[in-house]
Amino acid sequence: MALDDQSKPYFKFVGTRPKRPDGIDKVTGRAKFGADSYAAGMLHGAIVRSPHAHARIKSIDTSEAEALKGVKAVVTRADFSKDIKFTSGKDSEHWNVLENVMADEKVLYDGHALAAIAATSALIARDAVKLVKVEYEILSHVTDVDEAMAIGAPVIRKGASDKSVPSGLHENVVSYYESGHGDVETGFTEADLIIEESFKTEATHQGYIEPHACLASLGSDGKGELWCTTQGHFSFQKVCAALLGLETSQLRVTASEIGGGFGGKTTVFIEPVALALSRKTNRPVKIVMSRSEVFRATGPTASTSMDIKIGMKKDGTITAGQGTFRLQGGAFPGAPGGMTAMCAFAPYALKNVHQIGYSVMSNRPKQAAYRAPGSPMAAFAVESVIDALCKKLDLDPIEVRLKNASRKGTKASYGPTFEEIGLVECLETAKSHSHYKAPLKKGQGRGISCGFWFNFGGETAVSLALSEDGTVQISVGTPDIGGSRASIALMAAEELGIPYDHIRCTVADTATLGYNEISHGSRVTYATGLATIKAARDAINKLCKRAAEKWGIPEEAVKWEDGHAVPSGPNAGDFEPLSLKNISEKMGKTGGPIVGHFEANPEGAGVSFATHIVDAEVDPETGKTQILRYTVIQDAGKAIHPSYVEGQFQGGAAQGIGWALNEEYIYGSDGRLQNAGFLDYRIPLASDLPMIDTVIVEVPNPGHPYGVRGVGETSICPPLAAIANAVSQAAGVRLTELPMSPPSILAALKAE
Amino acid sequence: MQYYAPKSFSEAIEISMEAKGITRFLAGGTDVLVQLRADILTPEVLIDIKKIPEVGDILQNSDGSWRIGAAVPGAQLNEHKDLKAQWPGVVEAMDLIGSTQVQGRATLVGNLCNGSPAADSVPALIAAGASVTIISPNGSRDVSVEDIPHSPGKTTLEKGELISAVNLPKRNTNGGDAYLRLIPRTEMDIAVVGCGINLSVKEGLVSDARVSLGAVTAKVILVKEAADAIIGTSLDDKALTALSLAASAACKPINDKRGTIEYRTHVAGVLAKRAAQIAYKRARS
Fold first, then answer.
1. Residues of B near A (CB-CB distance < 8 A)?
2. Quick check: A688 contacting B, CB < 8 Å?
3. Interval B191-203: pLDDT, tens
């Protein structure tokens, strides 16, 4: 598609910081989240889950559960579509999702669903779960990525690998990726210093506050309704319809307000189950996950094992970079081995680079997207080695990164050539920031890291309807996970020339709008924003046409200026400007409703980069870390609503601090998750965090009318490495495994 | 489930003697209700003691000792100026538990009866030389706090026995106490190691001391060897090292999701040293 003129010199609304339209609802409790839907005659669902990491289901006896007063139905795999067949790799994604939602012959991880119950109360459903008798044949299991690839590891599922996997690898390796350019061996011979190091990161959970919740109603006629908390209700519609054997259009899905997603609410878990229970009972069924279920059975990110080798000259020039990334994705294909490898060296313009990514299955829950899947771990490994090289060669870490930074025209490590990008601007800003110059005390350390994410466009449809009173309602299909309704209304206000609060932006249900890709890939402000601008321009054309008709002049002789239709020049004639309201209040009599549309696949998302600076202090006697100061510097292209851009920056840093220091999935030798709750899964508390300072860099993205780049994901790419570099300096020992919890830091200190 | 709210201790004991199945006394409910809601434990009989007179009182006896009712929440202890001035270690230990909301309900007796080896207030109470008053069908008696914990989740209390209050001794003018714990974060967490120390100082020398450790054995313990290591010293480096070694030597921890054997053993020594220094400073001020 054609790209727009970037020359718009002045914004009236874009770049201001009005209150978010959903703000009052959220602070007063009026907002309806996933668990806030109720229906007359509603039943409550509960799910029977495997206590074993890997076992064959020999039998399921539900008779006692069904006999309990108040129990209305039990469903198992038999109650879902029989048309979904297993094939290799991610080709059979519907099968993979179904197998995850409801196990068939085997349970594949602790927490894997295998049956579900609908009862008249949530407590009865919970008690009935305990009455379901399952006979298992326990199988050997594996939860560690390196062990899962090793000879003799139990095979999670035969024939799951796709065609990319070279022969000779373990069957648990389901996908293989390799890319690069130049010749790394030659590059290493040119280096003055080569450092080679291995790294590991544990799986972390997205940690959204709102557990998964839904209310489903499905009749025997195949017509259904689903209300749920989701990042993508159109995708849920498609997947649920497939899993239940319905026609897609017969299932209407409405997204609730969402209490955090971070990628973890891009996939279905309980929704098809609630629909199946509803179909069987002919009653609406509500399911709300407990926190323990969220941890055991919904998407953590992949755990990793990585090897990095980088060569550097004495002047800081990187001569070659090589990385191997092994990603553990749970009992299904899909771990982002390829994306991890692609992101690893993207910030640097390298002559010689080579990267390999493996996607590996194990007996853990199916990994789900978590903000820039794979990129934070890759940055942890690569940026740690760059930091170690800088230390050994006594070079400034920002100067070295500037020297090697990717810029416009650089052939990226993963193939394409970069257009306008803002990495150099981020690094220059970091270099001149007061944080970078502030003195450090003994026992403290400062870490730097860059981060990269692709960003995404995707299928998008927007409808913009005028009301007779001159206000505007915008229907979008992307759930608002970061203040997007405010940003979208700002962009519409900018185009239409009417005040921000005369616009209401609504997340429309699946029956109201064309297909919209999930709110993921940092795409919403970019793609829905672009579609909104185009829809507003479509409406403006229609407004101008009405004015032209009223004035009796050609359409081309009317232009839109500051909220008004005006004659395009002196030759067009002399007419009083018509405001949007002047036209819309008469639209019923001048040709009917005025609605602007836009439907497309915007493809100019524009990659984004960030640089983080962090100071940390380590107690050498206890190994406990305190983060003292944190600064996020990131290219936003153009910040539509700067407060929510800053919020994304700070949120990425906060989640990164948790991931770096204390968050981890802990499995016992029995393969069971040991810490399925917020007590022992330690996300940071407010008191654990310093003020997280932010600087918005704006290098416009040529693929968006206003220059927007997505900002939701890049902010979580640098923290793991930046914190590891700061902690390593403070502790005086290089930390190569996450999390850097107090016991692990003390053990590293003692080993020195 | 049956819920009772007796108006007297004798009534409470009568109910508990007749109760069949899992029985829990309910004060603040910050353990019992959490376990109930998380489907960990559903009691058949719940006996709420908050309607019994005096369970909410903090009283200083004429001899200077203190009596803290079984349902006094942490927030109330924290706001009691005299108690906090005299037993800062005990009050601070209690104050470390949970959030502000939890502080409005959680009690010392509940923390003790929950039987966790990681209970924060218990090492502080043991170090302080506190006792509890147990009411049973045969009357009432006072028992040292260190004799209450038995093993994880279990106490030495028998069926029909109920703790009515915590008794803290009179604070001597040359004494001070402190409690420290190690958690990976800054608040609202479970102690990986906890250490309570109470000591007295005469002419610069530690004249008596009690050291208690939490989360390093199956129950909170009183460590006499650690106290002996500092009695008679000015808490110089040598004494602190001896204290640290004695504290570590008393540890018989486990490897679990919260810490390793090596880590807990090491940190017990570190915290003992640091807590002793705070208590010593308080004793001399």
1. 38-39, 182, 184-190, 192, 256-260, 262-263, 266-267, 270
2. yes
3. 999 999 999 999 9
Q: What sign does the CA torsion over B29, B31, B37, B39 have?
A: negative
Interface contact flag, A742 B257, Cβ < 8 Å: no
Are B19 and B132 spatial neighbours (Cβ–Cβ below 8 Å)? no
Please indicate whether, in this complex, the C-beta atoms of A743 and B263 are within 8 angstroms of each other: yes
- CA–CA distance from A594 to each of A349, A550, A600, B230 (Å)? 50, 15, 20, 86
Confidence band (pLDDT; 50, 70, 90) for A9?
A: low
Task: Read off the pLDDT band of A685 (50, 70, 90).
Answer: very high
What count of CB pairs under 8 Å joins A to B? 55
Partner B contacted by A684 (CB < 8 A) = yes
Helix (H, G, I), strand (E, B) or coil at A316: coil
8 A C-beta contact, residue B4 and residue B46: yes
Gap between the Cα atoms of A312 and A121, Å rounded:
65
| Sign, Cα dihedral of B5, B9, B15, B20 | positive
Three-state SS at B176: strand
B-chain residue closest to A683, CA distance: B185
**Cα–Cα distance between A391 and A388 in angstroms, integer?**
5
What's the Rg (C-alpha) of chain A? 27
Confidence of residue A463 (pLDDT cuts 50, 70, 90): very high
Which positions in chain A touch B262 (Cβ < 8 Å)? 743, 747, 750
Which residues lie closer than 8 Å to A328 by C-beta, 6 or more apart? Answer: A143, A144, A145, A148, A203, A302, A303, A304, A305, A335, A360, A361, A362, A364, A367
Chain B: closest CA distance from residue A123 (Å): 10
Taking an 8 Å cut-off on Cβ atoms, the answer to whether B263 and A661 are in contact is no
Per-residue confidence band for A90, with pLDDT thresholds at 50, 70 and 90: low
Per DSSP, chain B holds a count of helices (H) and strands (E) of 11, 14
With beta carbons less than 8 A apart as the criterion, state whether A400 and A350 touch: no
Per-residue pLDDT for A5 more than 90?
no
Beta-bridge partners for A618: A625
Average pLDDT estimate for A401-420: 98
Q: What's residue A4's pLDDT?
A: 56
Q: For CA atoms A696, A701, A705, A711, give the dihedral sign.
A: negative
What CATH class is the domain B175-284?
alpha beta
Secondary structure element (H or E) that encloses residue A380, with its range? helix A375-393
Domains of chain A: 23-31+457-600 (3.30.365.10), 374-455+606-751 (3.30.365.10)
Closest CA to B90 of B103, B74, B105, B110: B74
For A712-738, give the DSSP string.
TTGGGSSHHHHHHHHHHHHHTS---EE
User: A654: part of which helix (H) or strand (E)?
Assistant: helix A642-661
Can you tell me the distance from the alpha carbon of A292 to that of B93, in angstroms, rounded to the nearest whole number?
29
User: Is A661 an interface residue toward B (CB < 8 Å)?
Assistant: yes
- At A92, the pLDDT band (50, 70, 90 cuts) reads confident
Question: What is the number of residues in chain A?
Answer: 752
CA atoms of A239 and A681, how far apart (whole Å): 30
Mutate: best of B42, B116, B267, partner A, most A CBs <10 A: B267
C-alpha angle A58/A62/A65, rounded to 5°? 145
Q: How confident is the model at residue B58 (pLDDT cuts 50, 70, 90)?
A: very high
DSSP 3-state of A515: coil
B245, exposed or middle or buried, with CB in 10 Å at 0-12, 13-18, 19+?
A: middle
> Do the Cβ atoms of A742 and B192 come within 8 Å?
yes
Q: Is the pLDDT of residue A1 over 50?
A: no
